[in-house]
Specification:
The complex is a heterodimer. By secondary structure, chain A is an alpha+beta fold. Chain A contains 9 helices and 12 strands. Chain A folds into 2 domains: 33-60 and 303-335; 66-95 and 113-249 and 273-291, no CATH class. In chain A, the strands form 4 sheets. A 4-stranded antiparallel beta sheet of chain A has the order 1-12-4-9. Chain A is extended and about 90 Å long. Chain B contains 42 helices and 35 strands. In chain B, strands 16, 17, 18, 21, 22, 23, 24, 25, 26, 27 and 28 form an 11-stranded mixed beta sheet that branches. In chain B, helix 19 packs antiparallel against helix 20, helix 31 (894-903) runs antiparallel to helix 35 and helix 33 (930-956) runs antiparallel to helix 34. The two termini of chain B are 52 Å apart. The chains are: A alpha+beta, B alpha+beta.
Chain lengths: 342, 1149
């Protein structure tokens, strides 16, 4: 080592905070002293939030009616026979007080697996964005609803084919007269779905129908896509709001989908107390798989529909926090200096 | 390398003879049936790949790893059958992992190629067709005569033909081969030594026969046949004639040599050893956990498949009208469908095996190991050596050590020898001020007077100064006149080089005492005795070897008398001594040993003329033998080294290294058993053991020594075992010697182990290198399978270092063999404490948490997916989008754990080092015990259930969560679960983190932020190349819902609450000693600043302690001060208190 006096400390490691593992660091310790006040604070805050959420949720009114027609005495029993077509049944209900608006009208399906994998992928987003190339050759994932009699199906796939096709009309019964409650079908689908994700094919000579030339409708549909809404020409093709709502597959087998909002005319403030009757055009078969159909009227708060879960969860966790902080306080008082009694 | 050898063998089966014949300058005999042998060329290939085979070979090597292979299979399954996720989801991470590894390996190989090319293209001079030709190193063929100039390295293994010196010697240094820095003299045979010019060499007709290449650097057997004037002269060739590739020519202008081993067959190349892979305990547990998880995976997949078919048995679920099957699906065979469903589930759940685990662990180990090399505390200022990490695979094993097996010389001691005492002819002498003073007398000679030495004394001194293999280096040795020109001057430039420090110390001592060794010039040795020069002719050297444990020289004295001087261990010289003060010397040797001195006994033998002739003849025969040369040599040596006249003994002191005692004590407090294994006498060993604190004076020392038979040994063992049982309060120490040990191990392994386990210190003396390894193996394979660590500095420790779980080399004076074969190496024994107690502790905690956390986060990840199957008819619908599946492990959750595993410090390093007992907290792989594994796995499941069912209940009634009454779809549900999961998993790690550097903050909060930013970006664009646009705006819609925010907060917090509560309660009810010291640390506020000045100024521990105590005094009540005093710093209390403290420590840990 005497040979190289000059490079005596050439190998000396750098003396920096990083190499010596002594970077400045915050070293928190989960001791009772910090956790107990923290828990109390969080607990109190949670209880507060919980109460607020619970009250908010409590104020939301919900009216739910099953119209599957399983029981013989239910109004839609007559329609459950698969032979009948365009069967209309009436569902009557009474509101004892004002159902505050804006009222949202949902239909719901139970035991219906929109989240089935093969079902979920059975669509062609290319078609739905109006790409006519995909009109001629639908995606393979659409099978078995890819071609019908050698002609491409547009929109292809199981989701589109199983499009929910019951329709509803609501009447208020005033002195035996039926007064139709106007439904608002706009804005029930996501804004981005309507404006960006889904597009109709470019109209040929101003006609949407011609853009669909060479394709056939999905087998279960009574009418082709460009005639979905006979009343409103703008609500046709892939930009039909009901269709958009349906195409967003639900996460769980019991789901609701928004059908209409009641925001207009005399009912902008809500549905006044009184008798109502709902005309249901019963098309959609669910009994084969033990499914259920229902309609739901609900108003919403800023946090959405009626959802007790959040409020309760906050209350429970909040009070648990407080209780646990008490327990810890006792423990802390008893074993304050654990190193002294060993 | 192997390929080359194999090639060589395959192509050349007829030449698998034991010897190879090399015709010098490739002059083959004109007549006769000569078949040219095929030799490898001189190209060195250390690289693994070529441009052509890199891709296939590298891929093959990578897919040999189980994990990579598993993911390859998954990927192939995804390609083959219709699976829920696209092949990209597993292909991309796999590709990423493979690419990163391939780039790393490719780069390393490129460097090797570069080095190879440099070596192979180096210019060399070769004698060809009568002239000196410059060529490239790779063109050297076996048989070529190569010229090497001063300070050049040898391009191949050469047999020395001639040098510029007439006697045909040259000096070389083999520092780059074995690290020995001393100069070694190599010889040419006299017949070739005269051929000093190219033309003479051209005329040389000689054949070298030698053994086939082998890796042993110190073994070479061959002979050279020189044809001179039609007469064939045969000369033996040994290692002293062979110049190894890689060694360097010193002090010699030029040499000529004939290449015998070239390229990959040279000894250096054969020593490129692929070290055996050591696997750490953590890695083993990791593999066990992987298998358990594989089990969980298979169970989930099978369960799902069965349930799916159970469900589908009812027709209405099998094919409802809205979800018709295709013709193909209806018609495919039931069994095929079943299998493909099973595989699909396997693919769906495959993420439960964390793909990035291996990459992260490797990165952590690789990057983390830098901290060892960087540590200033492991840097040795005097020798300018920092710690060296040879394998980063074992970092965490440093935290698990239970047994330390340490060498003594050079490891516990400095290996800096200092001559102290000697015994001549039965009288003890001490060296005082450069004079030999008989025992009992004081240094009362008047200054300047030359003490009169008796004949025995002089003979003894001469014997010591002649019987060795020391070389001399003069600083300006260019003058060919050689060493003797300095003989009369002041020889200040003279420096001794010796392979053994004992020899060097002895020769230097003799110089001080007046008998100066001036160097050997060829076969002459020159000594100056009190100004009078004498020349001895060196006839033979009987080299030292570990079995004989002695070495001899045969000299012709100026008087013409032929004398043998022998020097060696007392046990291997005394039995052969016939005359002299044998008994007195033996007593003196034992006394020296008791003082901790290393002893050597010196003897001589005078040969009569006839005797010498016989000796000479037999030696020559043995040396020229081609077969069994070693055995025959040993036989001849035994014949020569007998009937000795004992001259005396020497005692050389080996100083203890600093802080050895503290280190051993710290290791003991840490629950580590320290064994000292040494080749020394047991008296020496015990005294060193006592002085270094390995044995305490209060310890009851048990002895198992000099057992000659099995029965005796068994009885003694039984007695010892009884004594231990009777007396279990006091600590026991055991001393075993090599012979007894081999008896004990042969028959009574269990009993011996039993005794050893109950001894707090064990000392093995008189150990042969292989015995050291055997002891280590015995413990390694004992039923408890403790983790062993071996530490040593010399070549004799290599076997033990390689055998132990962790091998540590000390960069000492005995070459670098130990360092090269070790896993870690540093300069001083005391560094072991920091390496184990601090680095080992940190690495273990880091990697253990890393492994557990990885499994945890993947359980969290995939269990919701499994639960979702119950709600989607087991249709293998994924809960999360493919991109999320792919990126979860490689982007969203990878960095925080990596940074954690690099920087986490549970306790301040200071505290860890001062409180060795903390090491017990992590012993026995406790953080990876089944209990903790279960905790993490169950926690994973628990969290996964909360994520999933929390989100499920929130959405379960399927009310709208948005203020505009719109509904969410399945992807929003999955994204909600995923968001909650990413946050929870990241925060869970945050809860585990005790040491928050800016990097931890950056990656923890950065990861969450990155997830949000990425999701916004990913969901904000219609991706043109994606098949489906499922995720479009899903994330924004989710975040636009107030309920979702509230749900995320409550789910995340309710996941973490139980954990927080558990941690707090455990801390207060059942604190581990680690946690206690965290408290102490916090109270003392040992900050970064403090530690900085402590370490950088190299302040003594005492002063540090003093400051610490001051701080404690000023902040805590007196009662606690006393406690933390004894707790904190056992180093500075006296022995007795340590003894009483240790049981206390062990009970409350």
């Amino acid at each position: 080592m005497k040979k190289e006096e000059t490079a005596e400390t050439a190998n000396r490691p750098d003396n920096t905070a990083f190499t010596q593992q002594r970077l400045p660091a915050w070293q928190p310790m989960l001791s009772a002293g910090i956790v107990i006040p923290g828990f109390v604070l969080i607990g109190v805050a949670f209880i507060g939030i919980g109460v607020a959420l619970f009250v908010t949720s409590k104020n939301i009114q919900v009216l739910e009616r099953d119209y599957t027609g399983v029981e013989k005495n239910s109004p839609c029993f007559k329609c459950t026979n698969s032979d009948t077509t365009n069967c209309v049944c009436n569902l009557n209900f009474t509101l004892s007080k004002l159902f505050e608006g804006p009222v949202f009208f949902y239909y719901g399906l139970s035991n219906y697996y929109q989240n089935y994998r093969k079902y979920g992928v059975s669509r062609d987003d290319g078609q739905l964005s109006g790409d006519t190339d995909n009109f001629k050759t639908p995606s393979d994932s659409c099978a078995p609803y890819e071609y019908s009699q050698k002609k491409p199906i547009v929109p292809c796939g199981s989701i589109a084919n199983s499009f929910f096709n019951d329709s509803f009309r609501l009447f208020q019964v005033i002195n035996g007269n039926r007064k139709q409650v106007p439904f608002d079908g706009k804005g029930i689908a996501w804004w981005t779905d309507y404006n960006i994700k889904f597009h109709n094919p470019t109209k040929v000579n101003g006609s949407l129908q011609k853009a669909f030339a060479g394709t056939v409708k999905p087998p279960n549909w009574p009418r082709p896509a460009y005639e979905l809404d006979p009343q409103d020409p703008a609500n046709n093709g892939f930009l039909n709001q009901d269709f958009l709502v349906w195409m967003r597959a639900a996460a769980l087998p019991d789901f609701r989908k928004l059908y209409r909002r009641i925001t207009e005319g005399d009912y902008a403030k809500g549905l006044p107390a009184g008798n109502y009757t709902l005309d249901i055009t019963y098309n959609y078969p669910v009994l084969s798989f033990d499914g259920r159909k229902k309609v739901v009227f609900s108003n919403v708060s800023w946090m959405g529909g009626k959802n007790q879960f959040l409020g309760i969860a906050y209350l429970v966790i909040g009070s648990l926090c407080v209780v646990m902080s008490l327990v810890m306080l006792i423990v802390y008082a008893k074993f304050k200096f654990p190193e002294d009694d060993s | 390398m192997l390929r080359w050898i194999r090639q060589q063998l395959d192509f050349d089966p007829p030449h698998q003879s034991d010897t190879r014949t090399v015709y010098i300058a490739n002059r083959f005999p004109q007549h006769g049936h000569y078949v040219p042998q095929k030799f490898a060329d001189n190209r060195i290939i250390s690289s693994k790949y070529t441009v052509w085979n890199f891709v296939p070979k590298n891929l093959f090597e990578q897919f040999r790893r189980i994990a990579n292979f598993y993911f390859l299979i998954i990927f192939l399954v995804q390609l083959m059958i219709d699976t829920p996720t696209s092949p990209v989801t597993s292909g991309l991470p796999l590709f990423f992992v493979i690419t990163v590894t391939a780039i790393k390996q490719g780069y390393e190989d490129w460097l090797r190629h570069k080095a190879d090319n440099e070596v192979n293209g180096a210019p060399v001079f070769v004698v060809r067709s009568g002239s000196l030709v410059q060529t490239r190193s790779k063109n050297i063929r076996v048989g070529d005569i190569v010229r090497v100039a001063k300070d050049e390295t040898f391009p191949a293994d050469l047999v020395l033909l001639s040098s510029d010196r007439t006697e045909g010697t040259c000096h070389i240094t083999t520092a780059s081969l074995d690290g020995e820095t001393n100069l070694k003299t190599h010889f040419a045979v006299p017949e070739t030594a005269v051929s000093q010019s190219v033309s003479q060499l051209e005329a040389l007709l000689a054949v070298v026969e030698c053994q086939q290449p082998e890796a042993d650097l110190y073994r070479f057997v061959g002979r050279i046949t020189v044809t001179q004037l039609g007469e064939e002269i045969v000369r033996p060739l040994g290692p002293e004639n062979l110049l190894l590739r890689g060694a360097r020519l010193k002090n010699t202008k030029e040499i000529f040599g004939v290449a015998v081993y070239t390229g990959m067959e040279s000894k250096m190349a054969l020593n490129y050893k692929c070290k055996s892979q050591k696997r750490s305990a953590v890695e083993k547990s990791m593999n066990t956990f992987l298998i358990i998880y594989l089990g969980i995976l298979l169970f989930e997949a099978i369960l799902s498949t069965i349930l799916k078919y159970a469900w589908q048995a009812e027709g209405q679920w099998n094919e409802p009208f809205y979800n018709q099957k295709t013709e193909q699906e209806r018609n495919s065979s039931q069994i095929l469908k079943f299998i493909s469903d099973f595989l699909a589930f396997l693919v769906l759940y495959n993420f439960i095996i964390p793909i990035s685990l291996y990459v992260t662990v490797e990165m952590q180990k690789f990057l983390g190991s830098f901290f060892i090399g960087w540590d200033l505390d492991l840097y040795h200022e005097e020798s300018d050596q920092k710690a060296q990490v040879n394998t980063s695979d074992l970092n965490e094993e440093l935290g698990q050590v239970e047994y330390v097996f340490t060498d003594k010389t050079g490891t516990l001691t400095e290996n800096e020898m200092q001559f102290r005492e000697c015994s001549i002819n039965g009288i003890k002498y001490q060296e005082i001020n450069g004079k030999l003073v008989p025992e009992g007398m004081t240094d009362d000679f008047p200054d300047g007077s030359v003490p009169q030495l008796s004949r025995e004394e002089e003979l003894f001194l001469k014997a010591v100064s002649l019987c060795h293999t020391v070389q001399i280096s003069y600083d300006q040795t260019d003058s060919p006149a050689g060493p003797f020109s300095h003989a009369n001057g002041i020889s200040i430039q003279m420096e001794y080089y010796a392979s053994s420090p004992d020899e060097k110390a002895l020769v230097e001592a003799m110089k001080r005492l007046g008998v100066t060794f001036l160097g050997n010039n060829g076969e002459k040795m020159e000594v100056k005795t009190f100004g009078r020069s004498e020349t001895y002719e060196l006839l033979h050297v009987l080299e030292f070897d570990a079995n004989r444990r002695r070495m001899s020289v045969i000299l012709q004295a100026p008087s013409g008398e032929k004398i043998l001087f022998t020097k060696g261990a007392e046990s291997s010289v005394l039995p052969y001594a016939k005359s002299g003060e044998i008994e007195k010397t033996r007593v003196h040797v034992d006394e020296f040993a008791l003082k901790g001195l290393r002893t050597l006994v010196v003897a001589c033998r005078h040969f009569s003329v006839q005797e010498y002739e016989e000796v000479d003849r037999r030696l020559h025969e043995a040396r020229t033998a081609l077969q069994q040369r070693e055995e025959r040599l040993a036989e001849v040596f035994a014949f020569i080294e007998r009937d000795l006249h004992l001259l005396g003994a020497t005692g050389v002191e080996d100083k203890l290294q600093e802080k050895v005692q503290e280190t051993i004590e710290a290791l003991r407090l840490a629950g580590i058993k320290v064994w000292v294994l040494t080749g020394d006498k047991h008296e020496t060993a015990i005294s060193v053991s006592l002085s270094c604190g390995h044995f305490h004076r209060t310890m009851n020392i048990l002895e198992l020594l000099q057992q000659r038979s099995d029965n005796e040994c068994a009885e003694q063992l039984g007695r010892l075992a009884r004594r231990i049982k009777e007396d279990h309060v006091i600590q026991h120490g055991l001393v075993v010697d090599g012979a007894s040990l081999s008896l004990a191990l042969r028959e009574h392994e269990k009993l011996f182990m039993e005794v050893c386990r109950n001894c707090s210190a064990v000392l093995c003396c008189r150990m042969a290198p292989l015995q050291k390894a055997k002891v280590v193996r015995l413990f390694k394979t004992s039923p408890e399978k403790p983790i062993t660590l071996a530490i040593g500095d010399g070549a004799n420790d290599v076997s033990m270092i390689q055998e132990a779980h962790v091998g540590i080399g000390i960069m000492g004076k005995e070459g670098r063999q130990a360092v090269r074969n070790s896993d870690y190496a540093f300069a001083r024994f005391k560094f072991l404490a920091k390496l184990l107690l601090v680095h080992g502790h940190f690495y273990y905690i880091r990697i253990a948490t890393l492994v557990q956390y990885f499994f945890y986060k993947n359980v969290c990840f995939i269990t919701p997916q499994f639960l979702y199957q119950f709600f989607c008819l087991f249709s293998q619908q994924t809960l999360y989008d493919s991109v999320y599946l792919t990126l979860y492990n490689i982007c969203f959750t990878s960095l925080p754990i990596l940074v954690y595993s690099l920087f986490e410090q549970l306790v301040h390093p200071h505290v860890l080092q001062n409180k060795p007992a903390l090491y017990r907290d992590i012993s026995k792989n406790s953080l990876l015990s089944f209990k903790t594994f279960l905790y993490w796995t169950l926690l994973g499941f628990f969290h996964a259930f909360i994520f999933f069912f929390g989100s499920y209940i929130l959405m379960g009634e399927d009310t709208s969560l948005m203020g505009n009454g719109q509904m969410f779809g399945n992807w929003t549900f999955g994204t909600l679960v995923f968001t909650v999961m990413v946050i929870t998993v990241t925060l869970k790690l945050a809860l585990e983190t005790h040491f928050w550097t800016w990097m931890n903050h950056f990656v923890t909060w950065g990861s969450i932020a990155f997830y949000f930013i990425f999701s916004l970006f990913y969901g904000g664009i219609i991706w043109p190349f994606l098949h489906t646009q499922d995720m479009y705006f899903v994330f924004v819609q989710l975040l636009s819902s107030g309920s979702a925010w509230f749900a995320i907060i409550i789910i995340v917090l309710s996941c973490l609450f139980p954990d927080v509560i558990k941690k707090v309660l455990y801390r207060h009810l059942q604190p581990t000693s680690t946690q206690k010291s965290q408290v102490i640390e916090a109270q003392q506020g040992v900050g970064c600043l403090d530690s900085m000045c402590c370490f950088s100024e190299g302040e003594s521990g005492g002063a540090r302690l003093g400051r610490l105590v001051d701080r404690v005094m000023s902040r805590c009540d007196p009662a606690r001060v006393r406690r933390s005093w004894s707790d904190l710093d056992p180093f500075y209390s006296n022995d007795r208190s340590i003894l009483t403290l240790s049981p206390v420590e062990s009970t409350h840990c």
